């Protein structure tokens, strides 16, 4: 009995908990800005471009080019804007204000999600998948600033990520959509 206790004390109690691996991006749950669940499986067979967005950022005008990209490729591409206030407090608005801002100023018709965290301890599982090689199978990254882009292929595989300075209409992105 003492041997069993010693074994448990040595191996079980000292074991560190591991974070659960997310096998598929399609298993992740996230809500739209209107609080309705988004079923990412609905976009299987399409590319998905995830972009962490903010209304008061120097890159905010990229909303216009994101909408242009969406209009041009919407048969094969879904764009999902993900509001985040973790960079310079540049998205302090409520979800209703964000929705109104995007529609009024940029005519945004692509999906916008609820406001989430894209880095740190309370990072949303979506960004846990996008930024961790253990989940996406391609590479690990960190979100550097607003308007960083992650392109997922039609089979749910991460293709690449693009820093905020890469315009949505760049051939670095569009070459995957031809």
From TrEMBL:
InterPro entries according to UniProt: Glutathione_peroxidase (IPR000889), GPX_AS (IPR029759), Thioredoxin-like_sf (IPR036249)
Residue positions of the active site: 57
Keyword Transport: no
Pfam families: GSHPx
Sample GO molecular function, one term: peroxidase activity
Source species, domain of life: Bacteria
Keywords from the named record: Oxidoreductase, Peroxidase
Keyword Oxidoreductase assigned: yes
Span of the signal peptide: none
Biological processes, Gene Ontology terms: response to oxidative stress
Family: Belongs to the glutathione peroxidase family.
PANTHER family recorded: GLUTATHIONE PEROXIDASE, PHOSPHOLIPID HYDROPEROXIDE GLUTATHIONE PEROXIDASE
Protein name per its UniProtKB record: Glutathione peroxidase
């Amino acid at each position: 009995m003492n041997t069993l206790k010693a074994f448990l004390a040595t191996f079980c109690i000292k074991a560190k908990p591991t974070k659960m691996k997310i096998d598929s991006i399609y298993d992740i749950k996230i809500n739209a800005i209107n609080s309705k669940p988004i079923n990412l499986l609905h976009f299987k067979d399409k590319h998905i471009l995830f972009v962490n967005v903010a209304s008061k950022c120097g890159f905010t005008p990229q909303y216009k080019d994101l909408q242009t990209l969406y209009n041009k490729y919407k048969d094969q591409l879904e764009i999902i804007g993900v509001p985040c206030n973790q960079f310079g407090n540049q998205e302090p608005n409520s979800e209703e204000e964000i929705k109104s801002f995007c529609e009024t100023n940029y005519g945004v018709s692509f999906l916008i999600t609820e406001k989430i965290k894209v880095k740190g301890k309370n990072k949303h599982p979506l960004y846990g998948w996008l930024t961790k090689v253990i989940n996406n199978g391609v590479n690990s990254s960190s979100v550097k600033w607003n308007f960083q882009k992650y392109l997922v292929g039609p089979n749910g595989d991460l293709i690449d990520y693009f820093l905020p300075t890469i315009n949505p209409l760049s051939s670095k992105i569009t070459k995957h959509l031809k």
